[in-house]
Amino acid sequence: MTDMSPSVRHCRHRRRIGFWQKSYRQYFSIANCVNKLATNILGVIPEDSYYKDQSHLSMEERVKTNYDHPSSMDHSLLFQHLQMLKSGQPIELPVYSYVEHTRTPNTIHVEPKKVIILEGILLLTDARLRNELNFSIFVDTPLDICLMRRIKRDVNERGRSMDSVMAQYQKTRAPDVPAVY
């Protein structure tokens, strides 16, 4: 441990903050703005990086996955990575392809930081993750705004059609679908 900086070596008091809400876009912006203000002490871990690897499934099977349900997440790996960061060890953050609906072979090297921000819509569905957070922040956004942000993100950034986004929303996220939160 001699090659670690004093701020990393003495991180018994690392803080973990969870950002979560009904829609992805706003808390992502908040977490990233906070991260840009203090990159030397803050690290942001997006839950979206921890969708389960689906490379063993056909594309037809992958697109049927309900990505708004906890079963789509590899929370065990996220928990393991959080434990590693907490103990001062770096992690290799998975990279998820929204076009291929699975993880890529690439990873992003993440060094431990004094404050770790976890952000995602399903974080609090996992008791292990909930118990690791020093506090959580919920950003309440009207559902119509959530839907507009989802359409914009999925069409512009994830190569999806508006019809596919609307079909998924109606099946998995519409207000009358039972909540898992």
UniProtKB/TrEMBL annotation:
Name the UniProt record assigns to this protein: uridine/cytidine kinase
NCBIfam families in alphabetical order: PRK05480.1 (NF004018)
Coiled coil start-end: none
Repeat listed as a keyword: no
Record GO terms (molecular function): ATP binding; uridine kinase activity
Start and end residues of each Phosphoribulokinase/uridine kinase domain: 48-176
Enzyme category, top tier: transferase
Enzyme Commission no: 2.7.1.48
Pathway assigned in UniProt: Pyrimidine metabolism; UMP biosynthesis via salvage pathway; UMP from uridine: step 1/1
Keyword ATP-binding: no
Matching Gene3D superfamilies: P-loop containing nucleotide triphosphate hydrolases
Keywords: Kinase, Nucleotide-binding, Transferase
Pfam family, one: PRK
Residue stretches spanning the membrane: none
Recorded superkingdom: Bacteria
InterPro entries membership: P-loop_NTPase, PRK/URK, Uridine_kinase-like
